[in-house]
Amino acid sequence: MTVTLADVAKACGLSPSTVSRALSDPGRVSAQTRDKVARVAREMGYTPNRVARSLSMGRTGTIGLIVPDVANPFFPPIIKAVQARAARKDLVVVLADTDERAADELDRARVLSKQVDGLIMVSPRSPEPRIAEIGRLGPTVFVNRRVPEHPSVLIDNADGMRQAVEHLVALGHRHIGYLAGPRRSWSNQQRHAAITEACAQLGAELVTFGPFEPQVQAGVQAADLLQGSPATAVIAYDDLIALGVMARMSERGLSVGRDLSVMGIDDSPLSGMAYPTLTSIHVPGAEAGATAVDLLLDVLDGLHGEPPPPLVELETYLVVRSSTGPAPRR
Amino acid sequence: MTVTLADVAKACGLSPSTVSRALSDPGRVSAQTRDKVARVAREMGYTPNRVARSLSMGRTGTIGLIVPDVANPFFPPIIKAVQARAARKDLVVVLADTDERAADELDRARVLSKQVDGLIMVSPRSPEPRIAEIGRLGPTVFVNRRVPEHPSVLIDNADGMRQAVEHLVALGHRHIGYLAGPRRSWSNQQRHAAITEACAQLGAELVTFGPFEPQVQAGVQAADLLQGSPATAVIAYDDLIALGVMARMSERGLSVGRDLSVMGIDDSPLSGMAYPTLTSIHVPGAEAGATAVDLLLDVLDGLHGEPPPPLVELETYLVVRSSTGPAPRR
DNA sequence: CTGAAAGCGCTTACAG
DNA sequence: CTGAAAGCGCTTACAG
């Protein structure tokens, strides 16, 4: 019922080989053949069977994308970017969401790796050894995690963090709180380190709370922990936690930006939606996604030469909105 | 380099046929054979090539999922649910995001349809005829859109809408605004119709504004249009628009819930994150996603009999939070 | 430029 | 219960 290469060949009075060439590498057949095949194929409504092609070519035209949580607003822009970039390169993307369960990552990666040309692991939560195992499944690029011997797209938190602390210090804040993310998060470690350094350099006192899950609810909880603290400003591991803090403060009748300055990280679409709007550190998720696709393609195409795995580092910067303001007088 | 069925067969001293059976239908071989094959396969690290299997079986074990916008918080829960349900059934899901461009839907569907067993189209924006064409590409289930001759998962807006209007009327609101979604949105039509009916029955005056894009920014714009209106409460096409309205009102120094009651639709995770928290009509996105997978599987498995295409209708209900309150005295 | 042949790695009637 | 054979629909050296 569905028309195959052989059907087209028969209709043209040509061999399947020739039809195949006419369609995929028109330069290698006569102009006459090319035109005829093109016409007949169109008339018959022929569309190549990608599965068959995959089998004989050893390439599926598919890449796998694994993220911790589609519902966390940090990831959708990445997913969109990967998807868009892949589509432009005629690739299709299969998606898996691990629901923030680190233990599921390897499993999902195993399944996907069998039907894709390569994998993009975004913010993987697995411990070191398991990450290495994932890397061995096939061509893999990591986003937001440095993995030895593998191409990775990293976020350089240093600049953004420094700008953030500078901003707060300039506003008169001397005691800054950091609401830590989960321990399994690689970027939490990076962020904590960067902020610690920035505070040391700029003469601010740092107090750390947490760890907290990257969810609004955790921020609500964090807000209450802040009560006895001298911190007049807090930087949250991500925007979700920051939003939770804001919501809770408002609920308690406190003014965010006056009584307490709150800053998020990610600059997710949410930041502009909150009220007051959330000052946040921009993390270029979309660029990271697109870059990851490019890197993966490089690996797939250049399977021969083994150049040192590329490591792209993307920059962060502060976006000031309304949730941060002058330190309150004491 | 990668071990195949044939390798395992040779190592076992059996034919590939037998090894294939031992692995996929153990009941059809001797216990001894079964055990041996299982052991050897494991030892050799054999994993079946899914592409080859797909080609010979005519099933890819993959389903396609097309959504308008991954970044719209209404869709992630659906995506997660589809993904989770599919994973449990040993299916992998390939995702496409059309960026709210109705014109891209058919194209993306065409590409995907060639490498999946079936398609799930969520809230498709294409006009009628093009939707029909998509339906002809292969087994397809539609979510949030009624398509003749095709299984669909629909959202029954009537209950939720009625509850919403009842709630507002009970609070003393007599003039209600509806901030319409885009014309291409099927559910916008449904919602508009349902709210119109509810208002008529409950004796409230309805004023419609829009259409607006499902984005926060559009809500900001809508808030200003409300200025001269007698409406003391508004129901927005979706939570994003509602949030925009809220943000803008707060910016203008007005109190949401007092000066103006605002209600969203979708009850997306966002609703609980806003301040004040957003009263919204719950739309069971996750259930819809899971149901869609089940329906699709039914179609795929029962290709023989042609029972009338199932049409599942999911209910909506009101979730009262803090953005709605008594009508202000005039 | 074109064709016959082999191969990609599995599955599945058909015999035995 | 097991095997030989054909087939899924394409691609690609190898000849000519």
From TrEMBL, chains A, B:
<dbReference type="InterPro" id="IPR000843">
    <property type="entry name" value="HTH_LacI"/>
</dbReference>
<dbReference type="InterPro" id="IPR028082">
    <property type="entry name" value="Peripla_BP_I"/>
</dbReference>
<keyword id="KW-0238">DNA-binding</keyword>
<feature type="domain" description="HTH lacI-type">
    <location>
        <begin position="3"/>
        <end position="57"/>
    </location>
</feature>
<keyword id="KW-0804">Transcription</keyword>
<dbReference type="GO" id="GO:0003677">
    <property type="term" value="F:DNA binding"/>
</dbReference>
<dbReference type="Pfam" id="PF13377">
    <property type="entry name" value="Peripla_BP_3"/>
</dbReference>
<dbReference type="InterPro" id="IPR046335">
    <property type="entry name" value="LacI/GalR-like_sensor"/>
</dbReference>
<protein>
    <submittedName>
        <fullName>LacI family DNA-binding transcriptional regulator</fullName>
    </submittedName>
</protein>
<keyword id="KW-0805">Transcription regulation</keyword>
<dbReference type="InterPro" id="IPR010982">
    <property type="entry name" value="Lambda_DNA-bd_dom_sf"/>
</dbReference>
<dbReference type="Pfam" id="PF00356">
    <property type="entry name" value="LacI"/>
</dbReference>
